[in-house]
Structure formats: C-alpha cells, structure tokens
C-alpha cells in the first residue's frame, strides 16, 4: 500500500500508472504536478489524481513514491527541483525511454540522494496522449525494464517492482547501457527508418502520385512515423551513441543487399528475405507462447 | 457476362477474382489450371472453379477471359504455352506486382497476338494464401492498376475494367514504367527495408535479447517481412532498376539523417521527423476521405 504518490506528468503514462494503482486499491492519495493547469484539472476531473500539487515542498511531504512521467528531456530539471525537498523515505522513479542519459541526469541532480532514484522504462504506449488517453490496464502484460543503480537498496527496488506488478506489468532488469543498446535496435532505429522513408517520399516531386498508391503494407510499416517528432528527437539525441551504431550497421546491411540486387543475385537476396521471415515467425510464436503462459498463470 | 473464364493459379488472387464474379452472377463457367492437383481439387470443392482444366487447348476453347494469377516469374512460360491456342475473341490479363517485365515477357511470348494481352495489377493481399484464403470481397474498394499497351483495343480494355468493377475494385491507369517506379517506392522498398532490419537483428550475437524487448512498433514495422521470400525475391529482381534507384535515394537520406544525429542537430532531426509525421497524417486523412466518398457513392 502507498499512502501518497506524486506524479510529474499526468498524461498517458503517468495517468495510467495512477489509475492502475487506484484500481488495485493500492494508493490512498495521488498528487499531480504538470506544466499546464488544463491537463491537471482534466486529470483531477477524471479521477486520475486527487490533488493538484500547489508547490513541490508540499507535494513531497510524506510521499512514498514519485513518478516522473514527463518527456525525458525534462527529467534533470525536475530532479533538481525536488532534490532539496525529498524526505529519506521517498523513492523516485521515472518512465523515460532512454536510461543512460537519465542516470547521468540523476547523478548530476540528486547528489547524495542518488540511492533514492530507481530508473525504469515501461514498454507501453498508445496512438493517443494526455490524461484522457490514460487507462488502468495500459500496463497489463507489458514489460517494465528497471535499470537499478548500485546505490539502490533492495527494499526500495522491491517497492518499485511491487507498484509495477500491481499495474499488471512483467518486470525485467538490464543495465542502463544494455537497455539503451537494446532499444536503439528494436525501437529507436525503426522509428528513425520509418520517419526517413515518409520524409523521403514526401519530398519527391511526384509525392502525391506515390501516396495515392501506398497501401496497407506501407501503412503498417510507417505507423510509428505518426509518433511525436519532439519526443523522438529527444530520444534520438539522448541515445545518440547506440543509435548511431545501429544506424551504421543497418546502412552496411542495405549496401550489402544493394550489391546482391545490382548483381541480380536472386539466391542471395532470397536468403536474406527468408532468414528475416523465419526469425520474425519465431519471434511472433515466442510472443504468443509467452502471452498464453502469462494468461494461464493468471499473472 | 462472361461465358467462360480460365484462371491460372487458383489461390488468394485468382480464387477471389473467380468468387467475386460468381457472386455477381457474371460468369457461367470457371476453369482452373495450376501446378498442384491438390490446390485445384480444393478450389473445385470450395466452388471457386467449376472445372479443372485437362489441357490448355481444351481450357481455352471458347474462353472470354484468361487471368494469370501465378507468381510473376511464371508469366512468360504460361503466355508461351497458351499463345498458339488463343482464339481471336479471348482476352488475357494478369495480376503481377511488376509490369514492365510482364509486358516484355508478353511481347516475347505473344507475338502477333500481343493486342489480346492487357497487363493489370490488383493492389490487394492478405497474410494467408492458397484457395482456402480466397474470399469474394477481397477487391472491394481496392485499387486495380491497368497498364494498357498501345495495341489493346478499347473494347477489350472495357471488358477487363468491367470484370474488375464487378469485383468492387477502383480502376486506375498508369504506364508500365510509371507503375514500377511508384510501387518500387511505396511497396517494394518498404519490403526490402523490413526484411533487412529483421535479418540484421537476427544475425547479431545478442539477437535473442533484442527480440525479447521488441514491442508493437517493431511488430507493425516488420509485418511485411513475414511475406513470402520467393515472391519478394522475384518482385525485387523483376523491378531491379526502379528498386535500386529508390534504395539509393533512401541510403542517401539515411546518410543525411546520420549526419544530423552525429552533429547533435536536434532541430534538423526534428524537421525530418515532423515533415514525415505531417505527410503521413495528410495521407491517412485522404485515405479516410476517399473511403468515405466511395461508401457514400455506393461505388
């Protein structure tokens, strides 16, 4: 049970966290803090938060847990603003899509209170955003990756894991660097590639004709290019090193496929395509098996 | 009304064409020809075809329309096998995903009967394949691109358009070269890029860890990498020139984005992402508007 939780950013991510804990009867009082009073009023009207934080010192008084669920570029300023007011028993966690930069920001901002900060990344999202998009089961069956610091106590870690489990999430642990390399490959690079393709097509003189004949394959391939440009600019910049490494590997891969195509090497091209198809089928099967096991386990 | 239609390849594409025309009461007799007797028996049992063609001369006797709906690499051999038996009143059309190569194959195989061949490409597909996947409304609201030859008569063209309209399709006309350039950009390149990404990840030493954290964005981005490797090898090879041009443009685009990222040029990166997001939103809105107009028009 949490007596008081403070949430910075009461949109989809923070709002869904609050709703899930409320649904589980696991939190008595939720305080919301945000940049626009309209969002905070909306979140209060929707029952996501119980109180709009009037000041940071007041909000933090007696808080068990603070969740920072704002765009990742704001994390350091928020940590700096709360540091002086943080009580010894309060745990701070976040929901940022990159972790090494968040850890660096936390070390810079938190000083001797760094042990109270537990970095986390819930792997969940929807097309829509804001308090109105928040739903209590957003995290049901989804992964949450914790990237604990050596300074974190096992008791605090347990508390954060407990909160996410109440939301229905499946907990994983990686180092911040592992996390960033993994998500550069399976999330940040695909976003960059999808944006790159749509921008490339949109800037062609016959773009209108091209879009006219784009069909469902194109729609799904580019769905993630509908994501927030500001958010993905921040993620790309925050994870620059790992993303550059993945992008370079991919450009090398494309140059290799280009050579096969230019040489009319049908078997070579087919081998690449077939390996991809096989790997994707195995991946889809393992997802379905894991989902089935999770549901049967009632977890 | 068609008295007799002959379909080469009674799978998803050919089978759905037959079912749609049967549903419309627009065909008396459908003859199927294929490589495996199992597929043909299945198609007959499902009511897709009325007769399994015993021989090409028999099948073509009195046929109004021949549809070639096999993998595109077989088109030339099929045209060569039917050429001598084709009656003057029979129209031949196809459903291949590439058109300049099909036109070249037709010119080589059809000789003085080339006017009877009308190249076409229905833009429709499903995850599944074979006669069991065929459905009568596959083409409802979908585009069919005709790439007519100068030799085609307007009467024959009208007949082919009439058949596709009975299937519920919306007819478009392009030159074969235009068609291939358009689909290289909006279909063939995205397939190649999706295959390339999954193959790239699958060959990394820590592939298992990466796939473990791939989520819904990755799933949609790579959906088309679940497509048939043989089919996409053939399409890539058949449309080599246009696909290489699009791939080169894309690699140039990636190198440009790489430079922005390496220089930590946030505004530059955001401009690319924002342009893509805006273009995709406009495209989605225009699709929805067109779909609404089509439904309201009862077309």
TrEMBL record, chains A, B:
Residues 3-291 form the Prephenate/arogenate dehydrogenase domain. Pfam families: PDH_C, PDH_N. Keywords: Oxidoreductase. InterPro entries: 6-PGluconate_DH-like_C_sf (IPR008927), NAD(P)-bd_dom_sf (IPR036291), PDH_C (IPR046825), PDH_N (IPR046826), Preph/Arog_dehydrog (IPR050812), Prephen_DH (IPR003099). SUPFAM superfamilies: 6-phosphogluconate dehydrogenase C-terminal domain-like, NAD(P)-binding Rossmann-fold domains. This is Prephenate dehydrogenase/arogenate dehydrogenase family protein.
